[in-house]
Amino acid sequence: MTIKTYNRNELSAFIDSDFYAILSKIPISYHRAVSQINNPAVSDNDILLWVAYENAAVIGYIGVLPDRLTTASLQTGICWLSCFWVDEKFRKSNVASTLMMGVLREHQHHLMISNFLFSLEDSYYKMGIFRPVEYKPGYEYYIRARFTKLITSKFPWLQKAEKLIFSTEKLVNQVFSVWQLLLPRLKVSPDISADLRFDNELDQFLKDYTHTNGLNERNASYFKWIYEYRWVKEGKKDKNSERYFFSSVSDRFSYIPVRIYDQGRLSGFAFLKMRDNALTVSYLYADERYLSDLASYIFNLVKAEQIDVIICYDSRLCRQFQKSNSRYIIKRRRRQPYLLPLSIDCSSGVFQEGEGDSVFT
């Protein structure tokens, strides 16, 4: 087994190499690598990817996403664990531990993990470098029923009845679709709209808002980078996308930056992610008095785009969604875990849903 590491320049050369082109399994998709290369928080010396090879074949890899943590009391470089995969044939060997040790040698004191499987929580915590896991509560608001896969995955013995369950799901959706058509479009202030500018006005607003509210500082260039360098492209799976274990294409994937003005002054910003039939509120910077209008804007958007579910972790906006409970069938609790290093004095409260690689996937 050979371990190869890649910094920004090495990653750029790798994805344009003949070797990358002929690999049956790749450790990073091309557009994900391009995004990493253009990450404004990356320095030339940062190692972004560790790959384990056996006879010139990929048998495992682990990657990180460098970032900055900037609050009124703290300024430091951090990185998020962004992918970790080992070929099934090698999972009883030392491939996983060797890859993780490479990350720890490089990033131990500022490594953060979110958006991970709950079954891995104990394994990560036992590494001894993280504080106890913190959970941020949120909700899923189902505009259309999506319970077939949920039921059959939780109760495998019901898979034989999957067609019947799906028929019931379709019937529920037909009834609720008629109900949705009868509901009037919600009134929304003309001061709330999608806006693709990432300019100085947005930059100054974000810096002021995050500083005042104790959030990790973000700026316009950060959101421009996310918008322009996506990890998931719209399209159908093909032989190329199947070379990568994690998702790299989706039927629908887009971002919607939303601005809120008050008497001509920028007073709020939301960054929404739309993937297939789900809409996620990835980032939200706005005072509570603007959130009723924002909730109405989002309900109108999901109706126009035929979205099935809204995902939100901002408790204030969730309260506004719940005031319009006729707009969704059911709400379901969910939680987002955060593992933060012992060496950095911060809490999950400074972060939003989109932090790490969540906004990209």
What's this, in brief?
α1 (about 10-15) packs antiparallel against α3 and α10 crosses α11. The protein is of the alpha+beta class. The chain has helices at about 10-15, 20, 30-35, 95-105, 120-125, 150-155, 160-180, 200-210, 220-230, 290-305, 315-325, and strands at about 1-5, 45-55, 55-70, 75-85, 110-115, 135-140, 190-195, 235, 250, 255-260, 265-275, 280-285, 310, 330-340.
Structure description:
By secondary structure, this protein is α+β, with helices and mostly antiparallel strands. It is built from eleven helices and 14 strands. The strands form two sheets. A twelve-stranded mixed sheet has the order 1-2-3-4-5-14-6-13-12-11-10-7, sandwiched between helices. Strands 8-9 form a two-stranded parallel ribbon. Strand 11 (265-275) and strand 12 form a beta hairpin. Helix 10 (291-304) packs across helix 11 (315-323). The protein is globular, with a radius of gyration of 22 Å. The model has no long low-confidence stretch (mean pLDDT 92).
Radius of gyration: 22 Å
Strand content: 25-35%
Fold-level CATH name of the domain at 2-133: Aminopeptidase
Please state how the strands of the largest beta sheet are arranged side by side: 1-2-3-4-5-14-6-13-12-11-10-7
CATH-wise, what's the superfamily of the domain at 2-133?
Gcn5-related N-acetyltransferase (GNAT)
Sheet with the most strands, sense and barrel status: 12 strands, mixed
What best-fitting shape do the alpha-carbon axes yield? globular
CATH architecture of the domain at 2-133: 3-Layer(aba) Sandwich
Please give the CATH class of the domain at 2-133. Alpha Beta
Q: What's the mean pLDDT score? A: 92
Number of helices: 11
